[in-house]
Amino acid sequence: MTVRPFQIGDLRSILRIEGASFDQEAWTEDIFVDCFRDERTLFLIAAIEGRTAGYIIARFGRHGAEIDSLAVLPRYRRQGVAIQLLKTAMQRVRRAGVEAVWLTVQSKNLSAISLYRKFGFVRTRTIPGYYANNSSGWRMRNHPRPKPSRFPLPVRKRTSPAPRSTS
Residue 109 contacts by C-beta under 8 Å, 6 or more apart in sequence? Predict the structure, then answer.
Protein backbone atom coordinates (compact mmCIF):
# COMPACT_ATOMS: atom_id res chain seq x y z
CA MET A 1 0.00 0.00 0.00
CA THR A 2 1.21 3.47 -0.82
CA VAL A 3 -0.08 6.76 0.52
CA ARG A 4 0.49 9.82 -1.63
CA PRO A 5 -0.96 13.25 -2.33
CA PHE A 6 -4.15 13.38 -4.39
CA GLN A 7 -3.74 14.24 -8.07
CA ILE A 8 -6.55 15.52 -10.25
CA GLY A 9 -6.42 12.27 -12.25
CA ASP A 10 -7.58 10.46 -9.09
CA LEU A 11 -10.90 12.31 -9.06
CA ARG A 12 -13.02 9.61 -10.74
CA SER A 13 -11.81 6.99 -8.22
CA ILE A 14 -12.43 9.36 -5.30
CA LEU A 15 -16.01 9.98 -6.46
CA ARG A 16 -16.58 6.22 -6.65
CA ILE A 17 -15.28 5.77 -3.08
CA GLU A 18 -17.38 8.72 -1.91
CA GLY A 19 -20.59 7.36 -3.40
CA ALA A 20 -20.00 3.88 -1.99
CA SER A 21 -19.16 5.27 1.46
CA PHE A 22 -21.57 8.13 2.03
CA ASP A 23 -24.55 7.66 -0.30
CA GLN A 24 -26.83 10.70 0.23
CA GLU A 25 -24.13 12.51 2.24
CA ALA A 26 -21.63 12.20 -0.64
CA TRP A 27 -19.63 15.26 -1.60
CA THR A 28 -19.74 16.61 -5.15
CA GLU A 29 -16.89 16.74 -7.64
CA ASP A 30 -16.60 20.51 -7.08
CA ILE A 31 -15.93 20.04 -3.36
CA PHE A 32 -13.05 17.65 -4.07
CA VAL A 33 -11.58 19.98 -6.69
CA ASP A 34 -11.78 22.85 -4.17
CA CYS A 35 -9.97 20.72 -1.58
CA PHE A 36 -7.27 19.91 -4.13
CA ARG A 37 -6.77 23.60 -4.92
CA ASP A 38 -6.83 24.82 -1.32
CA GLU A 39 -3.28 25.18 0.00
CA ARG A 40 -4.56 24.75 3.58
CA THR A 41 -5.79 21.24 2.80
CA LEU A 42 -3.96 17.95 3.06
CA PHE A 43 -5.53 15.52 0.57
CA LEU A 44 -4.03 12.03 0.53
CA ILE A 45 -4.99 8.80 -1.19
CA ALA A 46 -4.08 5.20 -0.44
CA ALA A 47 -3.43 2.88 -3.36
CA ILE A 48 -3.17 -0.90 -3.35
CA GLU A 49 -1.56 -2.44 -6.42
CA GLY A 50 -2.13 0.80 -8.30
CA ARG A 51 -5.84 1.04 -7.44
CA THR A 52 -7.20 3.83 -5.29
CA ALA A 53 -8.51 2.25 -2.09
CA GLY A 54 -9.27 5.28 0.07
CA TYR A 55 -8.62 8.92 0.85
CA ILE A 56 -8.35 11.37 3.72
CA ILE A 57 -8.79 15.14 3.73
CA ALA A 58 -7.55 17.35 6.56
CA ARG A 59 -7.86 21.13 6.61
CA PHE A 60 -5.51 23.40 8.55
CA GLY A 61 -7.06 26.25 10.51
CA ARG A 62 -6.21 28.82 13.17
CA HIS A 63 -6.80 26.48 16.08
CA GLY A 64 -5.54 23.19 14.66
CA ALA A 65 -6.61 20.84 11.90
CA GLU A 66 -9.92 19.23 11.02
CA ILE A 67 -10.23 15.78 9.49
CA ASP A 68 -12.97 16.64 7.01
CA SER A 69 -13.36 13.24 5.41
CA LEU A 70 -11.94 9.71 5.49
CA ALA A 71 -13.32 6.96 3.28
CA VAL A 72 -12.27 3.53 2.05
CA LEU A 73 -13.80 1.55 -0.81
CA PRO A 74 -15.85 -1.30 0.75
CA ARG A 75 -13.74 -4.11 -0.74
CA TYR A 76 -10.59 -2.67 0.91
CA ARG A 77 -12.06 -2.16 4.38
CA ARG A 78 -10.55 -4.02 7.35
CA GLN A 79 -7.21 -4.21 5.53
CA GLY A 80 -5.49 -1.34 7.35
CA VAL A 81 -6.19 1.32 4.70
CA ALA A 82 -7.94 3.75 7.07
CA ILE A 83 -5.25 3.18 9.72
CA GLN A 84 -2.47 4.00 7.25
CA LEU A 85 -4.28 7.07 5.92
CA LEU A 86 -4.99 8.43 9.41
CA LYS A 87 -1.47 7.65 10.62
CA THR A 88 0.12 9.42 7.65
CA ALA A 89 -2.20 12.42 7.93
CA MET A 90 -1.57 12.75 11.68
CA GLN A 91 2.21 12.59 11.13
CA ARG A 92 2.06 15.33 8.51
CA VAL A 93 -0.26 17.49 10.59
CA ARG A 94 2.05 17.17 13.62
CA ARG A 95 5.13 17.95 11.49
CA ALA A 96 3.36 21.15 10.44
CA GLY A 97 3.21 22.12 14.13
CA VAL A 98 -0.49 21.46 14.66
CA GLU A 99 -1.45 20.18 18.08
CA ALA A 100 -5.25 19.98 18.15
CA VAL A 101 -6.95 17.76 15.57
CA TRP A 102 -10.75 17.65 15.36
CA LEU A 103 -13.31 15.59 13.47
CA THR A 104 -17.02 14.80 13.44
CA VAL A 105 -18.30 11.24 13.03
CA GLN A 106 -21.77 9.71 12.95
CA SER A 107 -22.53 8.51 16.47
CA LYS A 108 -23.68 5.15 15.11
CA ASN A 109 -20.50 4.56 13.07
CA LEU A 110 -18.91 2.33 15.70
CA SER A 111 -16.05 1.07 13.53
CA ALA A 112 -14.92 4.63 12.74
CA ILE A 113 -15.25 5.67 16.40
CA SER A 114 -13.13 2.68 17.42
CA LEU A 115 -10.45 3.65 14.88
CA TYR A 116 -10.38 7.26 16.06
CA ARG A 117 -10.12 6.19 19.70
CA LYS A 118 -7.06 4.10 18.83
CA PHE A 119 -5.47 7.33 17.65
CA GLY A 120 -6.27 9.11 20.89
CA PHE A 121 -9.45 10.90 19.84
CA VAL A 122 -12.02 11.50 22.55
CA ARG A 123 -15.62 12.67 22.26
CA THR A 124 -16.06 16.28 23.28
CA ARG A 125 -19.76 16.68 22.53
CA THR A 126 -22.75 15.29 20.66
CA ILE A 127 -24.45 17.28 17.90
CA PRO A 128 -28.09 16.13 17.49
CA GLY A 129 -29.39 15.95 13.89
CA TYR A 130 -26.00 16.81 12.39
CA TYR A 131 -26.30 14.55 9.36
CA ALA A 132 -28.84 14.62 6.52
CA ASN A 133 -30.47 11.42 7.82
CA ASN A 134 -31.02 13.31 11.11
CA SER A 135 -28.51 11.15 13.01
CA SER A 136 -26.27 12.67 15.65
CA GLY A 137 -22.64 13.49 15.17
CA TRP A 138 -19.89 13.09 17.71
CA ARG A 139 -17.35 15.88 17.85
CA MET A 140 -13.99 14.31 18.65
CA ARG A 141 -10.58 15.77 19.44
CA ASN A 142 -7.14 14.27 19.50
CA HIS A 143 -5.51 15.54 22.66
CA PRO A 144 -1.81 16.20 22.30
CA ARG A 145 0.59 15.40 25.07
CA PRO A 146 0.03 17.97 27.81
CA LYS A 147 2.63 20.71 28.01
CA PRO A 148 4.43 21.03 31.32
CA SER A 149 2.95 23.76 33.43
CA ARG A 150 4.99 26.91 33.98
CA PHE A 151 3.47 27.07 37.45
CA PRO A 152 3.62 23.60 38.98
CA LEU A 153 1.26 22.89 41.82
CA PRO A 154 2.88 22.42 45.22
CA VAL A 155 3.25 18.83 46.31
CA ARG A 156 1.49 18.04 49.57
CA LYS A 157 3.18 15.81 52.02
CA ARG A 158 1.02 12.91 52.94
CA THR A 159 0.67 12.32 56.62
CA SER A 160 0.24 8.83 57.90
CA PRO A 161 -2.85 8.10 59.92
CA ALA A 162 -2.36 7.70 63.67
CA PRO A 163 -1.63 4.14 64.66
CA ARG A 164 -4.60 2.21 65.96
CA SER A 165 -4.48 0.73 69.37
CA THR A 166 -5.27 -2.92 69.51
CA SER A 167 -6.95 -4.12 72.64
Answer: none
